[in-house]
């Protein structure tokens, strides 16, 4: 199995940290260089059973100009072309305006979305349940996977879920 997966989420939710866990330090650092292509490659994860190309989708933010409008269209196009979307959130920060805006964009594409609840090392399980409920009410996520990108908790489970959509 092989396919393309977009990683989206507000700044500081842990996108780069997750890529470092999955793919390794070197590639994630390289991919932090700005690129002008529609989808920039974060890295490629390869095992016997699967190859997943992880993409970063620029432009998932509130449009503030004409360029913003163009960027948003490009982002929607990019999200339509992938096999699955990983929408990362920070369980400590919880729902913010940035997340709400991203969710509005997700409603315009048909690609399955996995809600990745990151930084579970920082929250009590009961509090996590209430964060899950908040997000569940806003969008019909294909899967919900709590992880700690930093410590690597549940990252293998996340990869197994991703592979299902390839
Ligand atoms: P990005 O902007 O989405 O790429 O976020 P980064 O990967 O740069 O992470 C932002 C900050 O959150 C950094 O200080 C990370 O070390 C921290 N971080 C990322 N994942 C975790 C996690 O699972 N647990 C904790 N406690 N911190 C995390
Ligand atoms: Mg980053």
From TrEMBL:
<keyword id="KW-0699">rRNA-binding</keyword>
<keyword id="KW-0694">RNA-binding</keyword>
<keyword id="KW-0690">Ribosome biogenesis</keyword>
<dbReference type="GO" id="GO:0005886">
    <property type="term" value="C:plasma membrane"/>
</dbReference>
<dbReference type="GO" id="GO:0070181">
    <property type="term" value="F:small ribosomal subunit rRNA binding"/>
</dbReference>
<keyword id="KW-0342">GTP-binding</keyword>
<keyword id="KW-1003">Cell membrane</keyword>
<feature type="region of interest" description="G3">
    <location>
        <begin position="56"/>
        <end position="59"/>
    </location>
</feature>
<feature type="region of interest" description="G4">
    <location>
        <begin position="118"/>
        <end position="121"/>
    </location>
</feature>
<feature type="binding site">
    <location>
        <begin position="56"/>
        <end position="60"/>
    </location>
    <ligand>
        <name>GTP</name>
    </ligand>
</feature>
<feature type="region of interest" description="G2">
    <location>
        <begin position="35"/>
        <end position="39"/>
    </location>
</feature>
<protein>
    <recommendedName>
        <fullName>GTPase Era</fullName>
    </recommendedName>
</protein>
<dbReference type="GO" id="GO:0003924">
    <property type="term" value="F:GTPase activity"/>
</dbReference>
<feature type="region of interest" description="G5">
    <location>
        <begin position="147"/>
        <end position="149"/>
    </location>
</feature>
<dbReference type="GO" id="GO:0005829">
    <property type="term" value="C:cytosol"/>
</dbReference>
<feature type="region of interest" description="G1">
    <location>
        <begin position="9"/>
        <end position="16"/>
    </location>
</feature>
<feature type="domain" description="Era-type G">
    <location>
        <begin position="1"/>
        <end position="166"/>
    </location>
</feature>
<dbReference type="GO" id="GO:0000028">
    <property type="term" value="P:ribosomal small subunit assembly"/>
</dbReference>
<dbReference type="GO" id="GO:0043024">
    <property type="term" value="F:ribosomal small subunit binding"/>
</dbReference>
<feature type="binding site">
    <location>
        <begin position="118"/>
        <end position="121"/>
    </location>
    <ligand>
        <name>GTP</name>
    </ligand>
</feature>
<feature type="binding site">
    <location>
        <begin position="9"/>
        <end position="16"/>
    </location>
    <ligand>
        <name>GTP</name>
    </ligand>
</feature>
<keyword id="KW-0963">Cytoplasm</keyword>
<comment type="function">
    <text>An essential GTPase that binds both GDP and GTP, with rapid nucleotide exchange. Plays a role in 16S rRNA processing and 30S ribosomal subunit biogenesis and possibly also in cell cycle regulation and energy metabolism.</text>
</comment>
<keyword id="KW-0472">Membrane</keyword>
<keyword id="KW-0547">Nucleotide-binding</keyword>
<comment type="subunit">
    <text>Monomer.</text>
</comment>
<comment type="similarity">
    <text>Belongs to the TRAFAC class TrmE-Era-EngA-EngB-Septin-like GTPase superfamily. Era GTPase family.</text>
</comment>
<dbReference type="GO" id="GO:0005525">
    <property type="term" value="F:GTP binding"/>
</dbReference>
